[in-house]
Amino acid sequence: MLHGLNELVVRGKRYLLxxxxxxxxxxxxxxxxxxxxxLAEGRTGTEPWATRYDLGALLDPIxxxxxxxxxxxxxxxxxxxxxxxxxxxxxxAPHCRNCLRxxxxxxxxxxxxxxxxxxxxxxxxxxxFNEDRLHGHCADVPPAxxxxxxxxxxxxxxxxxxxQ
Length: 164
Hints:
The chain has 4 helices and 5 strands, in the order E-E-E-H-E-E-H-H-H. It is an alpha+beta fold. The longest helix is centred in the last third of the chain and has 17 residues, at about 115-130. Helices cover about 25% and strands about 15% of the residues.
């Protein structure tokens, strides 16, 4: 099975996981901007690992030369396929906080859930019912206070040998 690009698709846009000093995100080149391939300059596709990859995808010059945070990148991080250098491992998520921040700033914020006020009101009532209300069965003492007094009384009157 051939491995393709180690890319992410976010809201229909393609991004490539690339290496600088850690993994970053590169976008597609746009307009008249010249692109670059996913592999580092000088890679020919004749390396031993290359037979496991879709070389057409790796050598296609469609990627921006800089990461989202503005750094010049070296080459695509290997994902599911074998490492390019023989000692690395696959990378499945970017590590650069700036790239992630820039990527997430373009995403729509999540609309507030209309059920939250109802959930808060219900939980407030449950808390009041279990903790604060006066209960006739418990001598008009709130349930939480009654329970605490019950367990305190159990510990205050120890039973057994040795308390003579």
